[in-house]
User: What shape does this take?
Amino acid sequence: MGVLDGQWVVITGAAGGIGGAMVQAFRNAGARVVACDRAAQALEAVDAERKEAFELTDSDACKAALERIECAVGVPDAVVSNAGYTRAETFDQVDDEVWANEIAINLTGARNVTAPLLPKMRLRGRGVFVFISSVNALAHFGNPAYSAAKAGLVAYARAIATEYGRHGVRANTLCPGSVRTASWDHRLARDPGVIDRVSRLYPLGRIVEPIEVANAAVFLASPLSSGITGVTLPVDAGLTAGNLPFIEQIT
Assistant: This one.
């Protein structure tokens, strides 16, 4: 018996590295998964009960996809807003277009698949949202536009938790640290040793694996966390706990 037996869970960014781990972890927990991504071709290799391809930044496309999902399986029990993107690593790479694009993908896109479901979950009397934010929402580690968007997710989840909690709707945020996915490939192409150096900054001496983020999402979406809402949980190999290299430098 899984902790999510028979529940329908919508996962965005399901074709990515973390998204793929999410799909598998939720299915292992007994959930039935609606895997969502922007292109049908990207979803071909994803093993899920249902698949939906749509553009997250297009609110009308999101509403249409959610209507299709509701017609097929009903109002989902949980939504994991996992899709995200960044390439602008410092302010000198952030112009108006980049800013608008990264806010649209990382913040507004999550809102586009959340807002249409809120009144329906309220009427039903239950529902769970898990937003995949980042440690960049908690301290600055680069990627300023992305960081602002991910900090917005934290505030958005708290707002839902506060205003919809009395209606049985929960909302929490995960903040992963560096996760070894394909998003690191462009950095590794420039500098093959970058992950080894970054790993030394983490108290666990390594970066996070996608399945570790996925397992935390399963917990927050499941009845195991039934008393938890409005929280921000780092999954960061200890990065936000403290900086041992800094301590060693000053002592």
